[in-house]
């Protein structure tokens, strides 16, 4: 069944709860979620097969799958708060974010969700920003909002807060947060966060009650980079979180814009480096920003597994889906143990681009990606925002 207004599938409440359960099962990141949905056709069928898949992948402990009652309670609390759950494939899911390979399967939003799919610019920079940096962030954010461009940022101190506040009057701002919608961080931004919820939109991957921790911020940065058409950097040290957002934006083929700073100021060295190496466009005014933005966004479309379902029956009748191990290469049958050994030798606890693993491994792309997916199910690796993968510490 589809909605005649936008041709998006209408998903039942039970299926939405199963999707929420699958997306929050440890060992099922965005990449594996998409793979499981493509293989089994529904979250319910994937959940039924998951314990066996994880045991086969080498996980010793039983998977911790959230219960139906817990996720039902989550949705009831979200509704009381006035929030909304957005599944990848919903019409209201952020348009540009839905096109990236590691798009989160589920988001939670509070406020005007249509602002998540507007032409937008991510504005990021130093928490300990200079007075000049804050003035520039305020000026450019206000001009963008006046021009109908949504300002996306991470509600951090400094540049983020200045950009949000300047775009509040027309309500064209999106705050991507690391914790649940019911958590405020940093504490001094309580009023600003509330105003964004009322006049703009808040968005997060985290369940209600989740306190932001260091490991959550790369996911928050992925939202900023993925939702936006371009990323504007105002004061960023070389090893800062802002540069992580810039890396993510580049991996999503977003335009990078940098306001240049003094070479004597450490807060400007990251942005200046991007300019010097030709990775970003020098930005001084709103005209520089408008020049790189696309005139319009692509049309929305269902999630990959929803598109596939229109042409291929789901594999709900099988306890195990067919996999690449049945494929034949020029050298004969593929040995999964040999592929896994080769892939693991290229990994460490330091994240590496999946593309680099594929290039350096002598096996097919499908074999390497399937192996990485199985290693995640086995609790050996995790996929990191921006198309990277890392070994989990023992």
From TrEMBL:
<protein>
    <submittedName>
        <fullName>DNA-protecting protein DprA</fullName>
    </submittedName>
</protein>
<dbReference type="InterPro" id="IPR041614">
    <property type="entry name" value="DprA_WH"/>
</dbReference>
<dbReference type="Pfam" id="PF17782">
    <property type="entry name" value="WHD_DprA"/>
</dbReference>
<feature type="domain" description="DprA winged helix">
    <location>
        <begin position="336"/>
        <end position="387"/>
    </location>
</feature>
<comment type="similarity">
    <text>Belongs to the DprA/Smf family.</text>
</comment>
<dbReference type="Pfam" id="PF21102">
    <property type="entry name" value="DprA_N"/>
</dbReference>
<dbReference type="InterPro" id="IPR003488">
    <property type="entry name" value="DprA"/>
</dbReference>
<dbReference type="Pfam" id="PF02481">
    <property type="entry name" value="DNA_processg_A"/>
</dbReference>
<dbReference type="InterPro" id="IPR057666">
    <property type="entry name" value="DrpA_SLOG"/>
</dbReference>
<dbReference type="InterPro" id="IPR036388">
    <property type="entry name" value="WH-like_DNA-bd_sf"/>
</dbReference>
<feature type="domain" description="Smf/DprA SLOG">
    <location>
        <begin position="85"/>
        <end position="293"/>
    </location>
</feature>
